[in-house]
Design brief:
This protein has helices at 9-12, 18-36, 42-65, 69-76, 84-91, 133-138, 146-162, 179-183, 186-197, 214-218, 239-247, 253-260, 264-269, 288-307, 311-323, and strands at 92-97, 110-117, 120-127, 166-172, 204-213, 225-229, 233-235, 275-277. It is α/β, with parallel strands linked by helices. The protein has 2 domains: 16-66; 73-323, 2-enoyl-CoA Hydratase, Chain A, domain 1 (Alpha-Beta Complex), CATH 3.90.226. Strands 1, 2, 3, 4, 5, 6, 7 and 8 form an 8-stranded mixed beta sheet that branches. α5 crosses α14 (288-307), α7 packs parallel to α9 and α11 (239-247) crosses α12 (253-260).
Length: 333
């Protein structure tokens, strides 16, 4: 029986990573042979396995060193890349989901839940893309409606009343731009969320785990510390959107990605991101457990640091953080 597309490594492989995936498959076949081999064949197969593993690892290292901005964008959207549900399963316990904005309805594109992270109770807010086709349709591919942002804000204000820190996981190409969303106040919902998050008296740590597109990302990303995974992006607009506006041609997205300088390291250089978290060689999808452990360690460390601060100092530092972004000098000054 044919494998589903999600579990077919070659079908899901990006063009530039296909040689690595082919070596992965060869290694899997060789490992299976080694398990069934007799004593005479085992040494030879073991040597071949070592050689092939070294070849694969060297290719991965070479690939990581020459990734273009567009290839990093593709990795941020990889079909096998861990989504918020994967991180929830690996990092959080005692998850109690909160639903609805108390005005219109619930939006599955944003998850809001009380949860424990390594013994610390907190509020989790996360864009939800889904893993299967059915989940992605239900979650609108992570593109939230205004009721999603109103739900998130309602729950964040509730967390503030309880004195609980907040963690947000960002992974969206942007807020949903449909007529219904606009009629229900998409821009207003995002604006209110940005305003109210700026004055929440509890620690807020945000992490861009994949795509961080425009106001749809910023609507749950006003924080004390911003983490970005190595192959994520956080931008005022998607490459396709930029190309459509500048050149009336969405097919020039690769060119737009370069013009926008869409790499996480640039965010750190500009003071937008506080930390860039390394991913497993080849991308987070190649070792989801390691990617989750790296994120969990960073969240735990930052929450320990921020929860020790009094509310007035926390708010002062948050205000200073955003006022310090984007410094410039007048020509000739």
């Amino acid at each position: 029986m044919a494998r589903s597309s999600r579990h077919d490594p070659l079908k899901n492989a990006l063009a530039f990573e296909r040689p690595v995936v082919e070596l992965d498959l060869a290694l899997a076949e060789l490992s299976a042979e080694l398990e069934q081999a007799g004593e005479e064949a085992a040494p030879e197969l073991g040597t071949r396995l070592e050689v092939l593993t070294k070849e694969r690892d060297e290719l991965l290292q070479e690939l990581a060193g020459r990734l273009s901005m567009w290839e990093r964008i593709q990795l941020s959207r990889h079909v096998e890349r861990p989504v918020s549900g994967d991180y929830v399963e690996q990092l959080f316990t005692d998850v109690v989901e909160l639903c609805g904005d108390r005005h219109f309805g619930d939006d599955r594109a944003i998850l809001t839940a009380f949860a424990n992270l390594r013994g610390r109770r907190l509020l989790l807010v996360a864009h939800r893309k889904g893993r299967t086709t059915e989940e992605r349709i239900a979650c609108n591919w992570g593109c939230a409606h205004p009721e999603g942002y109103r739900k998130a804000l309602r729950c964040m204000q509730l967390a503030a009343r309880f004195g609980l820190p907040i963690v947000t996981l960002i992974n969206t190409p942007g807020a949903y731009p449909g007529i219904g969303a606009e009629e229900r106040g998409q821009a207003s919902a995002i604006a209110w969320s940005i305003l109210e998050m700026s004055r929440l008296p509890v620690p807020v740590v945000s992490a861009v785990i994949g795509e961080g597109g425009s106001g749809g990302a910023l609507g749950i990303a006003v924080c004390d510390r911003l983490l970005c995974l190595e192959n994520s992006y956080y931008s005022v607009i998607s490459p396709e959107g930029c190309a459509s506006i500048l050149w009336k041609d969405g097919s020039r997205a690769e060119e737009a990605a370069t013009a926008l300088n869409l790499q996480s390291s640039a965010l750190a250089d500009m003071g937008v991101a506080d930390e860039i978290l390394p991913e497993p060689m080849g991308g987070a999808h190649r070792d989801k457990l390691a990617a989750a452990a790296t994120l969990g360690d960073a969240l735990e460390r930052l929450l320990d640091e921020l929860c020790a601060l009094p509310a007035d100092e926390l708010l002062a530092q948050r205000a200073a953080k955003y006022r310090g972004i984007g410094p410039f000098r007048e020509a000739g000054a």
